[in-house]
Amino acid sequence: MGDLKALQHTLRDLDGQGYGSYNRLKGTYDMGGFRLSVDHTQVDPYAPPSKIRVMLARDQIQLPGHVTQTRPQRIAAADHLARRFHAAVQGRTTSQDQPPRSKPRGSYGNGSHQGETTALKTYAHGQQVLERSTVLITDDRVEVRLEVALPAAGRRIKGRAAEHVLTQQLPQVVAAALDPENRDDDALVAHVQLYLDQLHVAESLKDRGLVAFVGDGSVLPRRAGDSDLPLEQGAIPFTTPGSLDVSFELPSGKTVRGMGIPEGITVIVGGGYHGKSTLLAALSGGVYPHVAGDGREWVITRRDAVAIRAEDGRCVTGVDISPFITGLPTGVDTREFTTTNASGSTSQAANLVEALGAGTSTVLIDEDTSATNFMIRDDRMKRLIPPHREPITPFVERVKPMLEHTGVSTVLVAGGTGAFFDVADQVIVMEAYRPRDVTEQARQIAQDTPWGDESDDVDVNGREVAPFRARTPRILHAPSLNPRSKTKPNRARGRTEIQVGRQNIDLSAVSQLVDAGQTAALARALDELATTTPHNVALERAAFERICSMERDGLDALSAHGGHPGYLAAPRQQELQAAVNRFRGLRLANGSAQRAND
Ligand code: ADP
Ligand code: MG
């Protein structure tokens, strides 16, 4: 191991040399207050920045032990320290949980330090508290992973500038963020406490017979369509309708009250622009805990809930959509539906059936992103289009059998139709952003004006509809995840894309993938699925096992490199399956969906 002097010496020596010589920096240095590890140096000034780590001994920085013992505590504490570190790189040395305003979620922060700009970079965390690889807390050390754009003049090394960044700015940042006297440990403890309280509510939902909770006073609307930050001006806080009022005693000793959405079928109605989609989007985001001040910190949804939408154009491989769709004009067997170009309705059916396979207990559906013909069909259309010409049994006729046969609850936004009144267990109306329970009125209306016959296994046309039976497992043909064009590990591009060889997986419709770090982790998980999945394992099982080992071994184990693992965040098994299912080269080892690969 070198020391500060050795680092200074090397940098002065490197001054003016060709940029590639920066690789002489690789190694570990004792910097006095901390250890610095230079794990990877960029090959040229325009390449992705160099990767470095800062390591501090636990007994040296004295983190409060009572909030850094268990895995959940460490996830929250690491999140807090990473936000502090990011703020310090930005030159904001006060303790603040909020990311800078203009930064989109999950982006890089190019630092400015105490007035001067710095080449140091850290990952800007979004509003969610996720397990991440940015900061690692172990029994004996704290490790911060960051990046540095090593300074250049043309293609020559600016050794003096690099020396300033690594031996002046970096120690200042470390001190500002992590020194016990600069740290605000009350904020750290509060951050961990909130996370544990949120976890408690999430874990209690099932026992309480609820699928979601929205705390009184929550602020659901966001600042803009492209921002995940809370609306500041004119936001109307959430108020709980009396009939749905519930409360939770929290581990911290506090109590939180709000609206509990019971299991079953819940329909959200209301006029246009009255806040229906905003509520549903908050519920969909509620599968992850949010930071204090987000406005949604008490919006908590079952961790396995999946938002379902139409996604025409996606590929589908061997999915049994027969509970919704049979007798397509092409004659294809919808028990193993396979297409390179799904329609609105077939894509929504596939998304739903895949979510059931991924073990969801709750599906969330918004009319705004649904295929109308998947959701409903009215009497006039039934008279015009004869039964044998309509392959779709609309969701309104299947939502109750789905609940009865699989136990899966639905929360649905439907402002344009009363078709769901017959099957709804709860109807909530949004009126100028305030919810009200109108279940009784909706029932009365349903009785007064019947919509049509309901029957579990016979549709409106009198046809037999496939029941929600146990699906035949889809056996993953793992080598198909390793197409011939793949010569390098998969690469994530931002939040919405993963490159596998020459193909791209488009994840832009997977709304519960919220952070580019999750996508990076998914890219790695797909690499591993391709090589480590044994024969004869169902796709669902393989994805589930992969996420379990990620939780057991930590995110670092996913990385292809030792040292700095890159910026990874934990995805759910639902999103891992979503990625596999959207890969156009996917093949199954069973069924007729064994189509040719690239
Ligand atoms: P709907 O789905 O009922 O048509 P949206 O949920 O799309 O309505 O909301 C319409 C607009 O109202 C959006 O711009 C949204 O940000 C805003 N909004 C939603 N909820 C609130 C609220 N509680 N307070 C203030 N504005 C809100
Ligand atoms: Mg809407």
From TrEMBL:
<dbReference type="InterPro" id="IPR019195">
    <property type="entry name" value="ABC_ATPase_put"/>
</dbReference>
<feature type="region of interest" description="Disordered">
    <location>
        <begin position="89"/>
        <end position="115"/>
    </location>
</feature>
<feature type="domain" description="MRB1590-like C-terminal">
    <location>
        <begin position="491"/>
        <end position="588"/>
    </location>
</feature>
<feature type="domain" description="ATPase of the ABC class C-terminal">
    <location>
        <begin position="185"/>
        <end position="454"/>
    </location>
</feature>
<dbReference type="Pfam" id="PF20446">
    <property type="entry name" value="ABC_N"/>
</dbReference>
<dbReference type="InterPro" id="IPR046834">
    <property type="entry name" value="ABC_ATPase_C"/>
</dbReference>
<dbReference type="InterPro" id="IPR049069">
    <property type="entry name" value="MRB1590-like_C"/>
</dbReference>
<feature type="domain" description="ATPase of the ABC class N-terminal">
    <location>
        <begin position="5"/>
        <end position="178"/>
    </location>
</feature>
<dbReference type="Pfam" id="PF21117">
    <property type="entry name" value="MRB1590_C"/>
</dbReference>
<dbReference type="Pfam" id="PF09818">
    <property type="entry name" value="ABC_ATPase"/>
</dbReference>
<protein>
    <submittedName>
        <fullName>ABC-ATPase domain-containing protein</fullName>
    </submittedName>
</protein>
<dbReference type="InterPro" id="IPR027417">
    <property type="entry name" value="P-loop_NTPase"/>
</dbReference>
<dbReference type="InterPro" id="IPR046833">
    <property type="entry name" value="ABC_N"/>
</dbReference>
